[in-house]
Amino acid sequence: MGRTGVLLLNLGGPEQIDDVRPFLFNLFSDPEIIRLPFPWLQKPLAWLISSLRSKKSQENYLAIGGGSPLRQVTEAQAVALQDNLKEKGQPVGIYIGMRYWHPFTEEAVARIKRDRIDDLVILPLYPQFSISTSGSSFRLLEKLWQEDPSLNRINYTVVRSWYEQPGYLQAMAQLIAEELDQFSNPDEVTIFFSAHGVPVSYVEEAGDPYQKEIEECTDLIMQTLNRPNPHVLAYQSRVGPVEWLKPYTEDAIQELAAEGVNNLLVVPISFVSEHIETLQEIDIEYREIAEEAGIHNFRRVPALNTHPVFIEALADLVVDALNSPKVLLSEVTQMKKKVKMYPQERWEWGLTPSAEVWNGRLAMLGLIALLIELISGHGPLHLVGLL
Ligand SMILES: C=CC1=C(C)c2cc3[nH]c(cc4nc(cc5[nH]c(cc1n2)c(C)c5CCC(=O)O)C(CCC(=O)O)=C4C)c(C)c3C=C
Ligand SMILES: [Fe+2]
Ligand SMILES: [Fe+2]
């Protein structure tokens, strides 16, 4: 019998405060995160934005203890998943491949190769697919496979997204129910799903299925929960000057407060581990906004982390993937026809008026920001909220 492996894909996060700047540089160097018309502009702009954003970002990480818990949580998930699969009679080696920080995806693939893994399940720790998350990791893996033909001996399969998985929905519903029952009037609480946002252009121009998957996921969780509560969906963590998916979480909280809502349960929906955007953005920033707007009973559902029902769901996903027809990286990196900017090197220039505007805007932004901010120490990136 061959050796089986599971490659868990995740984003990664700075483990200490000095990691923040190089982490941000890695993140903004990714064309799936900032899509620029000219590849040569990517690294200078990544350097500029990471240098200028790092102070504010460091303050946020300091507010949660000086670093992201993402590596520790992901490692604990890996151990729990491995134990679960062993109990099911399916021993596997688990590998963690982070996109922007240690342990990097490249290191994980090198270990998979060294361990002579025969069958591999590639499982992103993002329930819903986005070009900017799972898509970015899949593209990196596709590149690694293209660069090293010896990897072709590995019989791999990819799990593209898994927001409909019943065990995952059960685990989410269970966590929400437990938190609802902490309120004195559980049925009157508004359930507020807060998903990580993406720029509108990802969905409307690049065909990112993320918004659709988030909406379906929210509905499925509400069906599984089977409670009478009203619910809303909003998008958090906007970065930069372009329009992101709406409503924005901060606006939606204020609107609900204006409508007289006083009991709010926030459910982070696009990520399965505690991270800066649950611990700092929701627990500190959004709580403050809510309280100032008059919402006095504000709670948040914890991230799934190593919740046993969730780990069981991941194990089921692995077993199902091993017993199903193989899904190749080339299948999950293909976006629908007429997608114009993905990947960067295959952009079709000026095909539509909006492409021209978008490309020109970003190029101008990068160059002008670079010049003005380098000379003056102040500039448009501050004004548009990048810094
Ligand atoms: C499904 C989840 C996520 C999506 C979609 C996503 C898109 C996205 N993110 C940025 C910019 C930043 N993301 C940052 C950190 C970060 N983002 C996610 C998840 C999603 N991002 C996670 C889990 C983390 C790491 C958190 C941690 O604990 O360290 C950051 C750095 C933090 C900060 O300075 O705010 C940035 C910047 C963009 C531009 C984007 C879509 C295009
Ligand atoms: Fe992000
Ligand atoms: Fe973010």
UniProtKB/TrEMBL annotation:
UniProt entry tagged with the keyword Metal-binding: yes
Main location class: cytoplasm
Reaction it catalyzes: heme b + 2 H(+) = protoporphyrin IX + Fe(2+); Fe-coproporphyrin III + 2 H(+) = coproporphyrin III + Fe(2+)
Keyword annotations of the record: Cytoplasm, Heme biosynthesis, Iron, Lyase, Metal-binding, Porphyrin biosynthesis
InterPro entries tied to this protein: Ferrochelatase (IPR001015), Ferrochelatase_AS (IPR019772), Ferrochelatase_C (IPR033644), Ferrochelatase_N (IPR033659)
Keyword field contains Calcium: no
Annotated residues for binding of Fe(2+): 196, 277
Entry function: Catalyzes the ferrous insertion into protoporphyrin IX.
Name this protein carries in UniProt: Ferrochelatase
